[in-house]
Specification:
- The complex is a heterodimer of chains A (115) and B (863).
- In chain A, strands 1-2 form a two-stranded antiparallel sheet.
- Chain A has five helices and two strands.
- The longest helix of chain A has 20 residues.
- In chain A, helix 1 crosses helix 2 and helix 1 packs across helix 3.
- In chain A, strand 1 and strand 2 form a beta hairpin.
- With 115 residues, chain A is of the alpha+beta class.
- With 863 residues, chain B is an alpha+beta fold.
- In chain B, the strands form four sheets. Chain B has a six-stranded mixed β-barrel with strand order 4-5-10-7-9-8. Chain B has a six-stranded mixed β-barrel with strand order 17-18-23-20-22-21.
- Chain B is elongated, with a radius of gyration of 37 Å.
- Classes of the chains: A alpha+beta (115), B alpha+beta (863).
- The interface between A and B is medium-sized, with 23 and 23 residues.
Chain lengths: 115, 863
C-alpha cells in the first residue's frame, strides 16, 4: 500500500511530535530527538522533514507565541493529524506483521551467533 | 535586553533564500539555538554553528520558489514612471532644456571624436595583406637621439629576398620628381618607381586596365585623380605620357591602368606608378649595390606574420655591411612595421611612405569632449539634486504605497536614462547633421557616421549607460534616502547638511572655471600661432624655381630692370623649400645640421636678421670658406664666442663669420633646427628670390610669370609668394582656431547655463522663505545679499581649486601638443572669473526682480 509512506527519519519526527504533544516546535523536536536517540539532527534536515510531512497531511502547524530569546520571532507548533495517526499506526502494524512472520529459527540463529 | 545577535549578513543571506512562509519560524529556531549556544561557548563558536546550520538549510524544500515577476504589474509601473518623468520634465522646462541641451551637445562632440578615431584606426586597413607586408625601418642616432627612419639602404631589398626563405616578395619604392607632359598639359609631378609586386602586396583595385602591366618598363599606372587631371573623364588606357627627368632626358610611357579612387581612410598615397627598372633612366649613375644610397621604402612580405621575428633576428649582418660602407651614418638596428600598424607608428618614423595623425587633433579633441561631457554631467547632477526638493512628496507617497529604496533608485535611474536617450537622439542628430559636416568643412577630414554601423550603436549605448549611471547614481541614492516621516513632516532639508552636494557644486564651478579659461587660452594660442613671427620677412618676397644657370641669368637680367624689385638673389636651397642635411665636425663631436647654399645678398632679400658678425660679401673670394649660422646652432654647440670658430664639413675647414636670428624654415609644428648658410656659386642657383616694393607684389608676380612663359614655354612655372608657402598650414590653423573658438563657446555656454539653472532652482525652492522676509520688511537688497552670500564661499573655493588646476593642466597640454605655444598668461583666469561672476549676478538679478514683482501671498501659497 503506497498510501502511507513514511521514511525512517520522518517516522521518528512524527513520533517525537506525538511525544511532545502540545510543546512540539522546531527546537524542542530537535532536542528531544537528540536526547532520546542520541543522534545529531540539523535544523535543515528537521525543517525539510517537517515541511514534507505537513505537505503529506500528517502534521498540521499553528503559529504560537514569541519570546525574548527568539528576538521576537514566533514559534511554529506542530500537531499530528488523524491522517498522521493512521499513517503511524499503519507503519507500526506492518512492522509488527513482519516481526511476527519471522520464523523463530532465524532469530535464534542470530542470537546464537551474537552470543 | 541587550541581546547578542549573530552576524547580520548570515541572517540576510538566510532571508534571501528562505521560503517566505517558513522564514520567521525557522529564524526564530535558529536564534533560540544561537542564544543557547552562547550560554556555554564563545561567540565565535556560536557564529560558526549558526553559519553551518544556515548552510545546511540551503536545500530545495526550504529555498523559496522562483517567483519571477509574476505577482507584479511591471508594465503599469514602468508606464507610471514614464508618465511622472515626462511630467516632471515638463514642469521645469528650463532645467530639462539645460540638461538635454548640454548633454546632447556633449554627445555630439563625442561623436566627432568617435568618427575621428573610427576613421583613424581604419586607415590603411583595406589592404588585404596588411598583416604580412612590412616596411623595413632603420634606427640610427641623430644628435644623440635614436631615430627610426623609413628609408633603408638600396641593396638591402635584393639581399633580403635571397637570404630569407620566409620572405616571399620584396618591393623597392622610390619617389622621383619629374615633369609630365600630355598635349599642352605640363606639370611637375612626383612619380613612384616600384617593383611590380607593389600592387600585389598592397590592395589598390584597378578602375581601368590591369595591375600586371607594371611589369612592362614602358607602362605607367595613374591614380583616378591624376587621370582626371590629364585626360578628363575619358579612359586613358593606351594614351602616351612624356616624362622629363631631372637631367633633361625624356622617355615616353603608355598608360596601361588607372587605379580606383583611394578610400578616404588611406595614408599610403601616390600619384603615378612606373616599373622600378626606370630608376636608371632617371639617374644614369644610380648604383643598386651602393650601401650609402637609400630607398624611400623597402617593403617585404613574409609567408606567416609571426616569421617576421626570425627575419628581424637575422638583420645584424646587414648592419655591418652598411656601417662598413657608410661609417658616416651608422645604423644601430633594423626593424619592421606591418602595414596594419604603419599609420599608428608613423608619427615616430622619419621619412616614411605613410603619415601619422596630428597629435594635436587626437589629444585636444578627446580631452575637450571628455571635459564637456563631464561638465554636462555635473550640471545634470546638481540640477537633479536641487529639483528633487519638488518631488519629495512623490517619493514619500511611493514609499508609503510600498516601494522600497531599491525601487525608488531604479525609478530615478530609469528617468535619467530616459533623459539621456532624448539627449542621445538629439546629440546624434546634432552630430550627424551639424557637427561632423562642420568639422569636415573645417579640416577636410571626410569623417562620416554610418548610421547602420553596429559599432556606432554599441558606442552610443555604452555612452547612454555610462553617462546615465555616472550622472544619475548619486542623485538617485541621495533622493531615495529620505525617511517618509521626515518628508511629510517637512523636516527634510535638501542639500543643507550634505557636504557631498556642496562638493559637487564646487566641482561643477571649478570645471566651469577650467573650461572657460581653457577655451580662452586655446583661442589666444591659435591667434598667437597665426601671428607668430617667421624670423624673416616673407610678406614682400617672391620666388621661383629655375632649372639651370642660364635660366637664372635670363630671369635675373629682366627682373632686375623692374623698378619695383628692390633686391634680387639666387640660392641652391630656399627657405620653406627644403634644405640639405650635412654633418658638421667639431673637435668634440659630429652634428647633423641643415644647410642652405645662397648668393651673397640672400639675407637682405629674405629679411634674415644678422645678430653678430656679418653676412657674405659679393665677389669676396674668401667667403667661400665662411659660414653664417643660426642661433640654434650656436646654442646646440654651446659656442661661447661663435665668431671665428672653425668647423669642418666633409673635411673642409669653414670659419663662422656671422650669426643669424632663428627663423622658421618649416611651419610652426617643427622645431627650429641648427642651420648653416654657405656661399653658392651662380652655377648652383636653383631658386631666384626677390624683395619687392610693398603693395607691388601682384604686379611683379604677373611680370615674373609672363617672363617665364615667354622664355620657357615647355617648363611649368613654379613660382609664388613667399607668404603663400605655408598657406595650407595657415588654412589649417584658421580652421583649428575656429574649432577652438566654437568649443570654447560651448564650454562657456554649458558652464553658464548650468550655473543659471542651478541658482534659479535654488531660489524658486526658497520662494516661501523670501516671501516671508518680504512681508516682514526685508528689502530686495537684503534678499539679494542672502542669496549671494550662499555662493560666495563656493565661488572662492572653486576659484582657488580651478585656477591652479586649469593653469597647470593647460600648460602641460600645450607643452605636449605644440612645439611652440604662447607664453602662459592670466587673462584666461581673469576672464573666467569675470564671466562666472557675471552669470551669477545676472541670474540673481533676474530672480530678485521676479521676486520683487511677485505678490508675496502667491509665494506663501506655494506648496
Amino acid at each position: 500500500m503506497k498510501k502511507f509512506q513514511l521514511g525512517e527519519f520522518e517516522e521518528i519526527v512524527m513520533l517525537t511530535v506525538g511525544v511532545l504533544y502540545k510543546e512540539a516546535y522546531g527546537v524542542s523536536i530537535k532536542k528531544e530527538i537528540e536526547t532520546r536517540l542520541s543522534r545529531k539532527v540539523s535544523v535543515g534536515a528537521l525543517q525539510s522533514a517537517l515541511k514534507r510531512l505537513e505537505q503529506k497531511g500528517y502534521l498540521k502547524s499553528a503559529p504560537g507565541d514569541t519570546s525574548q530569546e527568539r528576538a521576537g520571532r514566533p514559534k511554529l507548533y506542530f500537531e499530528i493529524t488523524a491522517e498522521g495517526k493512521n499513517a503511524l499506526e499503519y507503519t507500526r502494524s506492518t512492522r509488527n506483521e513482519l516481526w511476527n512472520s519471522i520464523p523463530g529459527l532465524a532469530l535464534d540463529v542470530k542470537f546464537a551467533l551474537s552470543v | 535586553m541587550n541581546q547578542k545577535l549573530p552576524p547580520k549578513l548570515l541572517l540576510r543571506f538566510f532571508k534571501w533564500f528562505c521560503h517566505r512562509d517558513l522564514h520567521a519560524y525557522v529564524e526564530g529556531d535558529l536564534l533560540e539555538l544561537y542564544q543557547e549556544k552562547l550560554l556555554n561557548s564563545s561567540r565565535r563558536t556560536a557564529d560558526f554553528k549558526i553559519a553551518i546550520d544556515i548552510l545546511l538549510l540551503f536545500r530545495p524544500s526550504i529555498i523559496r520558489p522562483f517567483e519571477g515577476f509574476k505577482n507584479s504589474n511591471n508594465n503599469a509601473m514602468l508606464k507610471n514612471y514614464f508618465k511622472t518623468s515626462m511630467r516632471s520634465m515638463m514642469r521645469s522646462p528650463l532645467s530639462s532644456f539645460i540638461n538635454i541641451f548640454g548633454l546632447s551637445v556633449a554627445i555630439g562632440i563625442c561623436l566627432i571624436v568617435y568618427a575621428f578615431i573610427d576613421q583613424d584606426i581604419s586607415i590603411d586597413q583595406f589592404h588585404q595583406n596588411r598583416h604580412e607586408v612590412f616596411l623595413t625601418t632603420a634606427h640610427s642616432y641623430q644628435d644623440g637621439e635614436l631615430v627610426q627612419y623609413g628609408q633603408t639602404p638600396t641593396p638591402l631589398a635584393q639581399m633580403l629576398k635571397g637570404d630569407f626563405p620566409q620572405i616571399t616578395e620584396i618591393c623597392r619604392v622610390e619617389d622621383v620628381n619629374v615633369v609630365l607632359k600630355h598635349g599642352d598639359k605640363v606639370f611637375h609631378e612626383r612619380v613612384r618607381f616600384a617593383d611590380p609586386s607593389f600592387l600585389d602586396m598592397l590592395t589598390f583595385p584597378m578602375q581601368w586596365g590591369t595591375s600586371g602591366t607594371l611589369n612592362d618598363p614602358n607602362s605607367i599606372i595613374l591614380t583616378d585623380e591624376m587621370s582626371v587631371k590629364y585626360f578628363g573623364d575619358l579612359n586613358p588606357v593606351g594614351e602616351d605620357l612624356l616624362m622629363k627627368f631631372e637631367d633633361e632626358s625624356v622617355k615616353t610611357f603608355t598608360v596601361t591602368g588607372v587605379i580606383e579612387p583611394f578610400p578616404k581612410a588611406h595614408a599610403i598615397h601616390f600619384d603615378y606608378l612606373v616599373n622600378f627598372e626606370n630608376i636608371r633612366k632617371s639617374d644614369q649613375a644610380y648604383d643598386l649595390a651602393d650601401w650609402t644610397r637609400s630607398l624611400n621604402a623597402t617593403l617585404i612580405r613574409v609567408n606567416v606574420p609571426a616569421n617576421i621575428e626570425a627575419v628581424e633576428r637575422g638583420m645584424n649582418k646587414y648592419k655591418k655591411l652598411q656601417n662598413d660602407a657608410n661609417p658616416e651614418r651608422p645604423i644601430e638596428s633594423f626593424s619592421f612595421v606591418s602595414i596594419a600598424d604603419l599609420h599608428e607608428a608613423s608619427n615616430d618614423i622619419r621619412n616614411g611612405i605613410s603619415y601619422g595623425t596630428r597629435k594635436e587633433g587626437w589629444v585636444i579633441l578627446s580631452i575637450m569632449a571628455l571635459f564637456i561631457l563631464t561638465l554636462a554631467c555635473f550640471n545634470y547632477i546638481n540640477i537633479a539634486i536641487v529639483s528633487a526638493s519638488k518631488r519629495l512628496k512623490e517619493i514619500g507617497v511611493r514609499k508609503v504605497i510600498g516601494a522600497n529604496r531599491g525601487l525608488v533608485i531604479f525609478q530615478f535611474l530609469a528617468e535619467n536614462i530616459l533623459v539621456m536617450s532624448f539627449a542621445l537622439l538629439f546629440g546624434l542628430f546634432l552630430g550627424y547633421s551639424t557637427f561632423i559636416p562642420w568639422f569636415n568643412g573645417l579640416f577636410g577630414r571626410g569623417l562620416e557616421l554610418v548610421l547602420l554601423d553596429l559599432n556606432l550603436w554599441i558606442f552610443l549605448l555604452s555612452m547612454l549607460l555610462l553617462t546615465g549611471l555616472a550622472s544619475g547614481i548619486y542623485p538617485a541614492f541621495y533622493i531615495s534616502k529620505f525617511q517618509v516621516i521626515g518628508i511629510f513632516r517637512g523636516s527634510v532639508q535638501l542639500g543643507k547638511k550634505n557636504p557631498l552636494t556642496k562638493i559637487f557644486l564646487t566641482l561643477q564651478l571649478a570645471l566651469a572655471f577650467i573650461a572657460i579659461s581653457g577655451g580662452v587660452w586655446m583661442t589666444q594660442n591659435k591667434d598667437y600661432q597665426i601671428n607668430r613671427s617667421w624670423g624673416y620677412q616673407p610678406n614682400e618676397v617672391l620666388y621661383t624655381d629655375v632649372p639651370d644657370q642660364s635660366a637664372f641669368d635670363q630671369l635675373y637680367a629682366v627682373m632686375s630692370q623692374n623698378p619695383n624689385v628692390l633686391s634680387i638673389s639666387g640660392s641652391s636651397q630656399h627657405l620653406g623649400h627644403g634644405l640639405r642635411d650635412v654633418v658638421v665636425d667639431t673637435p668634440e663631436r659630429q652634428y647633423e645640421v641643415g644647410q642652405f647654399a645662397v648668393g651673397a645678398n640672400y639675407f637682405e632679400t629674405m629679411g634674415l636678421q644678422i645678430l653678430e658678425g656679418r653676412a657674405f660679401q659679393p665677389n669676396f673670394e674668401s667667403d667661400n670658406r665662411s659660414l653664417v649660422v643660426n642661433e640654434q646652432f650656436v646654442h646646440n654647440l654651446s659656442l661661447q664666442n661663435p665668431l671665428a670658430e672653425i668647423v669642418k664639413i666633409d673635411s673642409a675647414r669653414y670659419e663662422i663669420i656671422g650669426v643669424v636670428k632663428d627663423f622658421h624654415n618649416w611651419d610652426f609644428d617643427y622645431k627650429i633646427e641648427p642651420t648653416i648658410f654657405k656661399v653658392a656659386g651662380t652655377q648652383d642657383f636653383r631658386y631666384l628670390s626677390m624683395k619687392v616694393r610693398t603693395g607691388k607684389q601682384s604686379e611683379v608676380y604677373q611680370a615674373l610669370r609672363e617672363q617665364w612663359i615667354s622664355h620657357f614655354p615647355n617648363t611649368p612655372f613654379q613660382g609664388g609668394y613667399q607668404e603663400g608657402v605655408f598657406s595650407g598650414y595657415f588654412d589649417y590653423m584658421d580652421s583649428a582656431a575656429e574649432f577652438m573658438r566654437a568649443l570654447a563657446f560651448v564650454c562657456i555656454l554649458l558652464a553658464s547655463l548650468g550655473l543659471y539653472g542651478l541658482i534659479t532652482l535654488n531660489i524658486s525652492g526658497r520662494v516661501r522663505e523670501f516671501s516671508i522676509r518680504k512681508v516682514l520688511g526685508a528689502s530686495l537688497k537684503n534678499v539679494a545679499m542672502i542669496i549671494t552670500k550662499q555662493y560666495v564661499l563656493l565661488f572662492v573655493l572653486s576659484t582657488l581649486l580651478g585656477a591652479p588646476a586649469g593653469y597647470v593642466l593647460m600648460e602641460t597640454l600645450f607643452d605636449t601638443v605644440f612645439t611652440y605655444h604662447m607664453p602662459m598668461n592670466y587673462s584666461g583666469l581673469v576672464i573666467s572669473v569675470i564671466l562666472l561672476v557675471g552669470v551669477l549676478l545676472v541670474t540673481i538679478y533676474t530672480q530678485v526682480r521676479k521676486l520683487a514683482k511677485a505678490n508675496p501671498v502667491d509665494g506663501l501659497k506655494v506648496e
